[in-house]
Amino acid sequence: MLGTALAILGSALAVFGGGIGSSIGVGIAGQACAGLLSEQPEKFGNLLLLAAIPGTQGIYGFLAGFLVISKLGLLGGSPLTPDIFQGLQILFACLPVAISGLISGIHQGKVSAAGVSMVAKRAEEAGRALILAVLVETYAILGLLATILLLNGIKI
Questions:
Q1: Are 7 and 69 within 8 A, CB to CB?
Q2: How far apart are CA 149 and CA 97, in angstroms?
């Protein structure tokens, strides 16, 4: 039972880490976008992706959480019962996506907000601003990849 609880804790941390990072990041970027849109509403199309891009970390965390729940058989069928060691393995396997999602979501929001300043002065720079924000995304993707690889290596 403790192994299952530890595995579910790992799943929850993955979802919470990515979700918190995305919430903060989208909030930071959204505030910057709202400030510019109050004066230049025609730039909405240029700003939409900058505001949305920090939200992907929440999706990565959700995906990792879903993979754990699926691995445990909690979506249907007969649930598996990992021992304490396996539960700890699953918990630790979820940390890369949880931590990278939390940190990169916040920083991606900051880079997106800086990109809004670029778009405010030169609308044609929206693509470059988005590329800068996507660079931060790389580390969230690497965290997700590490979590997936680690989860696939755990036998229950």
A1: no
A2: 11
Angle, vertex CA 69, rays to CA 64 and CA 71, nearest 5: 90
What is the residue type of 141? I
pLDDT tens-digit profile of 25-44?
Answer: 999 999 999 999 999 999 99
Judge contact between 113 and 52, C-beta under 8 A: no
Q: Read off the pLDDT of residues 46-105 as tens digits, 9 standing for 90 and up.
A: 999 999 999 999 999 999 999 999 999 999 878 999 999 999 999 999 999 999 999 999
Whole-model pTM?
0.93
Q: Extract the tokens encoding 30.
A: 């959204």
The number of folded domains in the chain is 1
- The CATH number for 25's domain is 1.20.120.610
Tell me if 93 sits within 8 A of 33, measured CB to CB: no
Task: Give the number of C-alpha atoms closer than 13 A to the C-alpha of residue 29, restricted to the C-beta side.
Answer: 31
Please give the distance of CA 64 from its chain centroid, rounded to a whole number: 10
Q: What's at 125, amino acid-wise?
A: E
Q: Is the alpha carbon torsion for 17, 106, 31, 51 positive or negative?
A: negative
Residue 92 belongs to what domain range? Answer: 2-152
